[in-house]
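Troubleshooting log. The previous structure file for this entry was overwritten by mistake, so regenerating from the original sequence record. Sequence copied from the archived sheet and checked twice against the printout by T.R.
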Amino acid sequence: MRRASSLLHAEISGGRAAAGRRKRAARGSRGADALSVLSGHRRKLWGERNGLSYEATLLQSGQIRYAGALYDSPAAAARAATGRVTNGWRFWYYPLSRGEWIQLYNLKG
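Regenerated output below.
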């Protein structure tokens, strides 16, 4: 599974070399800093809990916009969405070019 997520990440980030550089940079970072390294551009995020769906936007800065507010970490945005303490790296899903979604956690590796 880890190898598959690495290949997916490489696909969306511009190749294996770029994927390695981004993952190494993201490992030492937290929140918006890690997300800005991973993202590079605006993307929709999606999350689901107890049958309810949530949508947010990952900005180029690495911040997450949910319900008109900006959050510096996936956990803060997930908590705002669900009203509960939530691991945002596992709650939010990131879109791939083929219409597939992967957890933010898999991008951070």
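The two ends are 11 Å apart (CA to CA). Archived copy saved in two places this time.
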